[in-house]
Design goal:
The protein is α+β, with helices and mostly antiparallel strands. The chain has one domain: Trna Endonuclease, Chain: A, domain 1 (3-Layer(aba) Sandwich), CATH 3.40.1350.10. 31% of the residues lie in helices and 21% in strands. It has a 4-stranded mixed beta sheet with strand order 1-2-3-4, with helices on one face. A hairpin with a 2-residue loop joins strand 2 and strand 3. Helix 1 packs across helix 3.
Length: 96
């Protein structure tokens, strides 16, 4: 069995997310195009696919992203991950 590939930026991204109070769970061992992180923040879960700048999704990732009913965010930096996770956790405005 091949060891799971962990992106070089994962440590910095996880550290930044935990610093803002998020819980991060690595899903790198799942393989088959699964996103790299599952992040919980203020009652909201976010899937994050980590890439180095200039990298693109592989075939398995593109296939899974196309089938997944929940959004999978592709991020390349700690700042980008923090913006996405904080934005996903914002309460939705109710009409009426």
């Amino acid at each position: 069995m091949r060891a799971a590939k962990v992106d070089r930026n994962q440590g910095a991204i996880v550290q930044a997310l935990r610093g803002m109070g998020a819980a991060c769970y690595s899903t790198a061992t799942l393989g088959k195009g699964a996103p790299d992180l599952l992040v919980a923040f203020r009652g909201t879960w976010s899937w994050l696919e980590l890439k180095m700048p200039g990298e693109s999704l592989n075939e398995a990732q593109r296939a899974l992203h196309g089938q997944c009913p929940a959004p999978i965010y592709v991020v390349t930096s700690p700042e980008e991950a923090m913006r996405i996770v904080a934005g996903a956790a914002r309460p939705k405005k109710l009409d009426g």
